[in-house]
Amino acid sequence: MKQILLVEDEEVLRMLAADLLADEGYKVDEAADGAEALKRLRERDYDLVLLDYMLPFYSGVEVLEHFRRECPEKRPKVIMLSAKTQPADRERALAAGADLFIEKPYRPFEFVKKVNEVLHETDGSPLSP
Amino acid sequence: MRRMAVHFRRSVASRFVWLMAGFTVLFFLGSALLVMYQQSLTRSFEAVQQALEQKEIRTHQLDRAFTQAFFDVRGYFAFGRPSFKESVFQQQETAKQVLREMEPLAVHPEDERFLRDAHDFFIRYFEQLVPKAIEAFERGDRREVALIAENGGTAAVQSFQKRLAAYHDTLIDQMKQEYIDFKRKQQYGQAAFIAFIALMLFLLQRLMRLAARQIGRPLQQFAAAAEQFAKQGATVEWPTFDEQEDEIGKLSKAFMMMMESIREKEEHLLAQNEELLAQQEELEAQQAELEQALAMAERREQELARRNDLIKGMAQSLDKQEVLHSVIRNLCAIMKAERGIIVVADEERAHASFGLSAMSVHRFLQQLYNGLEHRLLETKQAFTIRRELPGFERGYHDEPLYSYDLFVPVLSPSDDVEAVIVLSRFGAAFTDDEAVEAEQLGKHISISLQKLALYEEAEKDRRLTEDIFNHLPEGIQLVDLHGTNKLMNGRMKEWFGAAADGWHEAPYAEWKQRLCALATDEQALSVFLDQAVFGPADELSVMTYELKENRIVMEVYAAPLYRGGAKFGTIFVHRDVTKQVEVDRMKSELVSTVSHELRTPLAGILGLAELLLNKPLAPERQHKYLTAIYQEAERLTALINDFLDVQRMEAGRQTYHWEPVDLVPVVEKVVETEKLGTDIHAFSVSIETKRTVIRGDRERLRQLFTNLVHNAVKYSPDGGTVAIRLYEHSGRLCVDVRDEGLGIPAEALPHIFEKFYRVDNSDRRRIGGTGLGLTIVKEIVKAHGGEVDVVSEEKKGSTFTVRFPMASITQEIN
Ligand SMILES: [Mg+2]
């Protein structure tokens, strides 16, 4: 069973995403800010991290950069989520090592589809063409 | 002999030489004779003396011989010793010898008489008496001997001895006599010598007189005559010595000739002199003419020099005041005026004076347009007036003094009076010529004044252009085709400070290096400048760079400059776009923030709604989702309302309904409402003043306090007291809203009234909010002429204080 860490400060969005992923049969851990996220990342190896860009204290990119430096051996897939759609933000996220950038608001089923795709790339067997 | 005579006649000198020679010879001859006489005298005296001495000696010898013989005879007779007898004979021989020797000496008859007597006695004695006596003695006949002696022998002897003594005395006398004679003769000789010397001196004196007569007198006469000649000139009577052939004569002739020659020369000179005098007169006449011409030329030159000074003074400066001063000073010198003033006939009435006190100038200016100048303005001609000096100008003079004032118009080429000059002179009036000259000078001054006016205008324009150029908000720099800096404005210098010093004519490499060193991205700026200066000339290029020192963001654009179709340089315009960039950044950030704030609830609503629509869900789950959708929609509405409020308020488009509002019921109502939403908070409202009415908009005030009280509740999630206090301070009505909640970190305090600012704190982050509440508070307070601030300590709580200006007393409620 794939382990996913969901980092999202907005309660409603966290609930929505968590429910969607749970329905897909993933095991989801939740974190509301960067500090909590890093704590969880250190504790477990996740297959995927869903990282909100706008977080209190540290932005999602900062959390990611920090995590990459701290645990270079852990290579989870990372999807960056953001309501900020400036091209610079997207570039920065990808440069920090995100595999995918999903804009908010997203459509739930497309979101699930993208998560599945990213997770199955790891196995070399994409779920669907 | 004749030749000698001729020679003597011809030479005074030889004459006197010969006379002196003769005199000398005579002197020596006479002296020699006298000496010789003296010597012969001495010699003859010595000879006589010697002869007498010889006689005396012989006499003495004879006496001794006879005396010895007597004694010897008697001795022989007494003792009978033959030796006596021999001695007698010996004495006989001696006497005989002496007698013989005396013979040649006998020169006097006395001598001969004595000699005869001596000879007789000798014979009688030695040849008669002695032999008889001796014979008698030898025969022993003593009687006979005695007889002989008695018969005359002894008597004879005695008589002869007497005779001898007498002769001896005679000789002594003779010697004495001879000596006396000699002495006498010697004295005669000496007297003769003295007489001879006297004679010689006499002769010498005669000789001197002769010399004096023959040389001295003519010389004296010559001297007198020469003196007279020197004094009187040609008319002198010359002493006539010219018959003489000697030096005097020659001298006389030479003098005569000299005088003659002098006379001739003098006459010649006189003639020449007369000629010269004539010439001199002619020359003097010419000189007088020349002097007159020279004086005129000098006057002209001085006049020109003064005019030159005037013109130079005008040309040397472009400062109006300086020029006017120079003009009036020089004009007074040219016109020989003691005082003067020049006033420009325009609004400013710029003026300069010479020899006038400030008070006089002031008085003059006041009176200037009251009378006299009208005449100038009408006639446009110089005129003079005479006026009596008032007492204070007269100084120590008692009698009336007059001042002549010359009024001169300075006329422009178009005959307008540009300035008025007044020159004052004491005592002497200005002539018409002087007035004309002053008018002419006025024309020069007019040209100068016009030049000044043109310059001032041009200078004003130039300054205006320069001011504009230097104070443009843009830094402007002009470079030529080689990039050499040609021009830059003050703004550039202001921005770039010391780095922009000495840029004038600085080569490209130098200023570029210095400019680029200021920028954070040196390389990019350098490339841009290279491209602008040397690149293709057809486009305007722009770039932005940041200054290292103060993070100022500059924008520079470069444009090629064309003259006659050819590029001749490049203009760089630097602009401080820091603010603009900041505004842009803030705008884009706001857009980004707003979009994020709006998208976030929308994302929830959309996602949940799609899920509800497309997926069969358990009813609890459906309810959960619908509740969330409702909350998010509410949140979105509040957000949009707040955002619109802020936009309206910031843009000044919010309409306020002003009325007197008592804050107490407003605050109380807000508290009542907020109480309903919580049961862990206590509320207290304390009213510490009676004057609680302000002029305000009731609805907005309610919004204001709602935001503050709601925040107080929201940010004290663990409950506590929310205390509201109304009081008066410094003439203002103040409202404190205090909580015991989370507090605000110090670094966040300056920002909390900014739009969408939210303190990043996990505790707070779970607390919802638009991030616009405090911005709205600030805007409403501002609209009411009040202010808001906050004091806070983390974990202890915050106190927001709002201060309003008090409403007037009539609106106070009781
Ligand atoms: Mg977020």
UniProtKB/TrEMBL annotation, chain A:
Pfam families for the chain: Response_reg
Name by which UniProt lists this protein: Response regulator
Secretion signal span: none
Modified residues (4-aspartylphosphate): 52
Keywords, comma-separated and alphabetical: Phosphoprotein
InterPro entries per UniProt: Bact_response_regulator, CheY-like_superfamily, Sig_transdc_resp-reg_receiver
Superkingdom of source: Bacteria
Coiled coil: none
Key word Plastid present: no
Record PANTHER family: RESPONSE REGULATORY DOMAIN-CONTAINING PROTEIN, STRESS RESPONSE REGULATOR PROTEIN 1
Stored Gene3D superfamilies: 3.40.50.2300
Organism: Geobacillus jurassicus
Ranges for domain Response regulatory: 3-119
TrEMBL record, chain B:
Membrane-spanning segments: 12-37, 187-204
Sections of the chain in a coiled coil: 259-307
Limits of the Histidine kinase domain: 593-808
PROSITE patterns: HAMP (PS50885), HIS_KIN (PS50109)
Domain HAMP: 213-267
Catalyzed chemical reaction(s): ATP + protein L-histidine = ADP + protein N-phospho-L-histidine
Molecular function as annotated in GO: ATP binding
Listed EC numbers: 2.7.13.3
Enzyme class: transferase
A Pfam family that the UniProt record links to this protein: HisKA
The keyword Nucleotide-binding belongs to this UniProt entry's keyword annotation: yes
Localization per Swiss-Prot or TrEMBL: Cell membrane
Membrane topology, as annotated: Multi-pass membrane protein
Keywords carried by this UniProt record: ATP-binding, Cell membrane, Coiled coil, Kinase, Membrane, Nucleotide-binding, Phosphoprotein, Transferase, Transmembrane, Transmembrane helix, Two-component regulatory system
PANTHER family per the UniProt record, alphabetical: HISTIDINE KINASE 1, TWO-COMPONENT HISTIDINE KINASE
Protein name: histidine kinase
Lineage: Bacteria, Bacillati, Bacillota, Bacilli, Bacillales
